[in-house]
Amino acid sequence: MAKTTNAYACSECGWQAAKWVGRCGECQKWGTVEERARRGATLARTVAGAAPREEKRARPITELSGNVAHHRSTGVLELDRVLGGGIVPGAAILLSGEPGVGKSTLLLSVAAHVAGQGARVLYASGEESTGQIRLRAERTGALHDSLFLASETDLATVLGHIDQVQPDFIVVDSVQTLASDQIDGSAGGPSQVREVAAALIRVAKERGIPVVLVGHVTKDGSIAGPRLLEHLVDVVCHFEGDRNTALRFLRSLKNRYGPTDEVGCFEMTGGGISEVPDPSGLFLSRGAAPVSGTCATVMIEGRRALPVEVQALVARSATPNPRRVTNGVDPSRVAMILAVIERRHGVTLHDQDVYVSTVGGVKLTEPAADLPIALAIMSAIQDLALPHTVAAFGELSLAGEVRPVIGDQQRHREAARLGYIHVIAGGTETLGQASQAAGLGSFLGRE
């Protein structure tokens, strides 16, 4: 028998070392290297070639059909948009997200829609009992006779359920809760995750059954377990959203059957997850009369152009260190914009509290948000309101110039569709010229 020796492996990525180290050499995380038992290495052997089966024989690429991977609609249009038209038979899909964001609720709704199309669906959960899933299904209206539930944490038992039910669609929630008694280690470890994922993907490919795997995330937002998990699956999607808001975004990070720049919009309600096919009015709070300190912009989410309202408030500070409070925007970019306004336009802001926020809890991280943030701050300083027909987007440089951004034509089309007559975009204009075009005057005019 092979001799058993002590080895050390990272609990996050599976990287192995001959001796203990404090920091993983692969994922660079501290305190994740643990001692494990490993069988002694054996000498490499030469493997004799085996004749492939007729259906597996290598053929010229021109003789192969390109219609093998065809999409089937799930009944959820926003999910179909992200997946590139629907689910491909035999596809392995990995869905990740923060705890409590609504992954299980979304997949239960998808499973009910697929079951409503006449397919047999198996929903295997290792985190909840069948009674808990039944209560959620009653609340969200996801009850169907073709939807089968199973609460299991053993991989062999889940495979037995698949043989018994013969489903057309499988949901496993989650891959970190299943374990195989053939592999050492607890559920969620790198070796267990690799074995569970490989077994389920093998079933999906051999039988042509699409499988959706739910994946946990770590503190930094990455998918827990070995990086190999993302390479094994065909599609990687991330479900994100703020717990304080009802809006949820589904993003495609990897897709072998479609684009990776699509975004699906959902809304969390008391009755479950509902689609938002046109989220144009979710991030605007337009009243009857214009209000100072607000500016509308158009951001790009995937292939979508969404209007967003930026709000700013400037007030005299009562403390030696003025506050810079942001919500939904990058604090470092706001600090840069304030420095440009103060240096290029002679405005004193070191004794002013500045608050910048977005409407609806949306996050603006692209450089195109620089100009609307600057105009909103200028509007708050002068106490002059921008008209409802004005929208702006552009990147602000340290020299006070407004640069063009990607997706300019798409942003213009969306702004025109929503009724924004006057659009201020990046180009050769300076920030002072942009403020004049927005109706804020010369703004103390120091160009």
TrEMBL record:
Note what the entry says on domains.
The middle region has homology to RecA with ATPase motifs including the RadA KNRFG motif, while the C-terminus is homologous to Lon protease.
PANTHER family hit by this protein: DNA REPAIR PROTEIN RADA, DNA REPAIR PROTEIN RADA-LIKE PROTEIN
According to its record, what are the GO cellular component terms? cytosol
- Organism, by scientific name, is Leucobacter exalbidus
Q: Where is this region: Lon-protease-like?
A: 353-447
- As annotated in the record, motif RadA KNRFG motif runs over 254-258
Top-level lineage group: Bacteria
User: Which residues hold ATP?
Assistant: G97, E98, P99, G100, V101, G102, K103, S104
Q: What does this protein do?
A: DNA-dependent ATPase involved in processing of recombination intermediates, plays a role in repairing DNA breaks. Stimulates the branch migration of RecA-mediated strand transfer reactions, allowing the 3' invading strand to extend heteroduplex DNA faster. Binds ssDNA in the presence of ADP but not other nucleotides, has ATPase activity that is stimulated by ssDNA and various branched DNA structures, but inhibited by SSB. Does not have RecA's homology-searching function.
BP-aspect Gene Ontology terms: recombinational repair
PROSITE patterns, alphabetized: RECA_2
Q: Which family does it belong to?
A: Belongs to the RecA family. RadA subfamily.
- State the protein's name: DNA repair protein RadA
User: Which key words are in the record?
Assistant: ATP-binding, DNA damage, DNA repair, DNA-binding, Hydrolase, Metal-binding, Nucleotide-binding, Stress response, Zinc, Zinc-finger
Q: Which SUPFAM superfamilies match?
A: P-loop containing nucleoside triphosphate hydrolases, Ribosomal protein S5 domain 2-like
One GO term in the molecular function aspect is:
ATP binding
RecA family profile domain: which residues?
Answer: 68-217
